[in-house]
Write a structure and sequence with these properties.
Blueprint lengths: L22 E12 L3 E12 L3 E5 L6 H8 L8 E10 L2 E2 L5 H7 L1 E4 L11 H7 L8 H14 L1 H5 L10 H13 L5 E5 L7 H18 L2 E6 L2 H7 L2 E6 L2 E7 H6 L1 H6 L3 E2 L2 E2 L2 H9 L6
Parallel strand pairs: 3-8, 3-9, 6-7, 7-8
Antiparallel strand pairs: 1-2, 1-4, 4-5, 9-10, 11-12
Length: about 290
């Protein structure tokens, strides 16, 4: 577990918190530019220790999805590029690998919005996750059964077209598809988006089980701060493309700025919408 770090403002030369466990991912002071002119990430550093869940928190537009796409080397599809810094996954520079090579090495991204193949069945969607594994039929069948053990609802719906299942089932399908690649780390982007609270709890519980029982590391980009900090061991808060706060989950959950802006709690009570809008204009870390 990363050592507790005091919540503090972060500049472009910020050094990622140094965890005691061996990191599977180290992002070091990266900058990301779109269309050669739009600076989106401004010196982001973070660390994911092996076998842990780390949360990447922040409002919409803070840079969470861009950070994940930089790690998985998908920026070029959106005319973006890392112009500074380094990303080390499992001991190697990630940008020395193509996206499909990163998948083979165990770095899998579950995109925001789930992106299931609507015209394929649930089981066919899951099997696409094993595409890079060739013809290992028995092992793939074993892993498919493992996915169904975590997501029994998918087994019930395995013949249904993915475009006709619920949003929660599509999110399960997207995570299950990632598991079929035998990941070392999953980059999970906004898993709670558009889901009912009961389904959000179910999805996060499965993520926790996959981490505890299968040893899969997670970097979890999420606006639902309360749920993310419930399951993560460590967290980073992004604002306007910068890491502005970081610490263990308990420390962040008790931080007054996090409670007031992200959890909507001030002075022991829940804030009104008007108070929340006012605080958005006066966040102390952006002063």
């Amino acid at each position: 577990m990363p050592p507790p770090a005091p919540a503090a403002s972060a500049g472009a030369d910020r050094v990622a918190a140094t965890p005691s466990a061996t990191p599977i991912l180290s992002v070091n002071n990266i900058e990301v530019v779109y269309d050669h002119v739009i600076l989106v990430l401004k010196g982001v550093s973070l660390t994911v220790p092996k076998g842990q869940i780390v949360a990447l928190l922040g409002a919409n537009g803070a840079g969470k999805s861009t950070t994940l796409k930089a790690i998985s080397n998908l920026l070029s599809a959106e005319r973006g590029e890392v112009t500074k810094g380094s990303i080390i996954f499992d001991g190697e520079e990630a940008h020395a690998r193509s996206p499909n090579e990163l998948v083979r090495r165990g770095c899998i991204q579950v995109m925001e919005g789930r992106h299931c193949f609507a015209h394929l069945s649930v089981e066919e969607n899951l099997l696409t996750g094993a595409f890079t594994r060739g013809h290992a039929g028995a092992a793939i069948r074993h892993d498919l059964d493992l996915v169904y053990s975590y997501f029994p609802r998918l087994k019930e719906r395995r013949g249904a077209l993915a475009g006709y299942i619920s949003g929660g089932e599509q999110q399960m399908c997207a995570i299950g598809r990632a598991l079929m690649s035998r990941p070392k780390m999953i980059l999970l982007d906004e898993p709670s988006m558009g889901l009912a609270p009961q389904l959000v709890e179910e999805i996060f519980k499965i993520v926790g089980d996959l981490n505890a029982k299968e040893g899969v590391s997670f970097l979890l980009a999420e606006q639902n701060t309360r749920m993310a900090l419930k399951y993560a061991r460590y967290g980073y808060v992004l604002e306007n493309g910068r890491v502005v706060l970081d610490g263990d989950a308990k420390t962040l959950g008790e931080n007054e700025d996090v409670k007031e802006f992200y959890l909507g709690i001030a002075e022991g009570r829940r804030k009104s919408f008007r108070e929340g809008k006012h605080y958005r204009r006066r966040k102390r870390w952006l002063a």
